[in-house]
Structure formats: C-alpha cells, structure tokens
Design brief:
5-stranded antiparallel β-sheet; rod-shaped; Immunoglobulin-like; alpha+beta; about 190 residues; 2 helices
Length: about 190
C-alpha cells in the first residue's frame, strides 16, 4: 500500500540499482511515445487536385404525328369510296401516310370495315374481303374487324402510299345487291 513520504524517510540507492542501460531503455521508450504523440497532433493533408465546370441540361421530347390523305379527301384523312362492286371483282383505292413527327414509327390500319355484318342482313360478311397490296392479302372482313393490319415502318419525315383492296367473292348472290357498307378505318403510328 502506498503512503506519503514522511519527514525523515530516506531512500537508499543500494536497494534499487539503476544502471545506464535501464535509463537508456526507459528514455528510448519515452522518446518513442513522444514522437508518436507529436505525429498525431500534426494535421494530415489529404488534398488532391480537382477541377469542375457546369453545363446546361435541356430535355426535349419527341413528337409522333401524321398527315393522312387519299380518296376524295385531299388532306387530313381519307374517304375511300368503293362503288358498284360486283361478284368476283376487286376494286382499289390509294391513301398516303406521312410521318410528320420527329421519330420513327410503326404504321397500322385498324378496324377496316369493322361492324360489317350488322348492315348486311342475310348476306355472308365473309364474302367481302379486304387487303392492303404488299402488306395484307385479301382477307374476309370479319377476320379483320378486331385486329389491325401492319403497314411497316416510317422514318421521321417519310411518306408512303398504300393501296387498299376490296373484293366481293364470285359466289356472292342476290342478297348482296344494293348493300351499302359504311365504316371507319383508323391509321395509327406507334413509336418504334
């Protein structure tokens, strides 16, 4: 147990031998600790060179528009009239589609003569066939009512003229006389 030294206490150097070697070891250890502590107090610089600059970020979206013309309507759509169609005959009309947008698009003709059977009475709607030359062979109208005809792709600014074909089967009988079919077909551009 440790106590405060009292007056009259003495210490004999003989009880503890202190050599130069022990003093050197102790002094060297203290010096090493001092150097380590000094290094911890010196601020370390982690600076690297760098440079930066600024720029503008502008976002512009694409457009997908079309110009449609043909038949008796010069522009802004088409009116295709097939008149006096006889059994065994195929009539054709052309329409033009131009991609006036800024991106490429896939073109389709949807709903050609959809709802045909409603206006035909007892005439067989499958005897009326529709196609687009080079894209869709003549196909019975009821088979086209729920789908679209793929008309290929148009690059931005490109235009193409298509030929719509309407045919009445040779086997069509008197039930077809005097029938008038009115329908809407839609040309659609979809982003590629």
């Amino acid at each position: 147990m440790w106590r405060e030294p009292q007056k009259g206490d003495t210490m004999s150097l003989k009880s503890k031998s202190i050599s130069k070697k022990n003093i050197a070891r102790t002094g060297g250890g203290i010096a090493a600790i001092g150097v380590a502590a000094a290094l911890l107090l010196v601020p370390v610089s982690g600076a690297d060179f760098s440079a930066s600059d600024t720029g503008d970020v502008d976002v512009s979206t694409a457009t997908l528009t079309l110009d449609l013309s043909g038949g008796s309507q010069a522009s802004g759509g088409f009116d295709l009239d097939f008149t006096n169609l006889k059994p065994g005959e195929t009539q054709t009309q052309t329409f033009t589609v131009k991609n006036t947008g800024s991106i490429a698009a896939d073109v389709s003709l949807g709903g050609p003569l959809s709802g045909v059977s409603a206006s035909l009475g007892n005439a067989n709607p499958s005897q009326l066939k529709i196609g687009v030359a080079g894209y869709k062979a003549l196909t019975p109208a009821p088979q086209l009512a729920s789908g679209a005809i793929d008309l290929g792709s148009l690059a931005a600014g490109q235009e193409r003229t298509y030929t719509l074909q309407v045919s009445l089967d040779q086997a069509a009988g008197n039930e077809w006389q005097g029938k008038t079919i009115g329908a809407t077909a839609t040309v659609t551009l979809n982003q590629r």
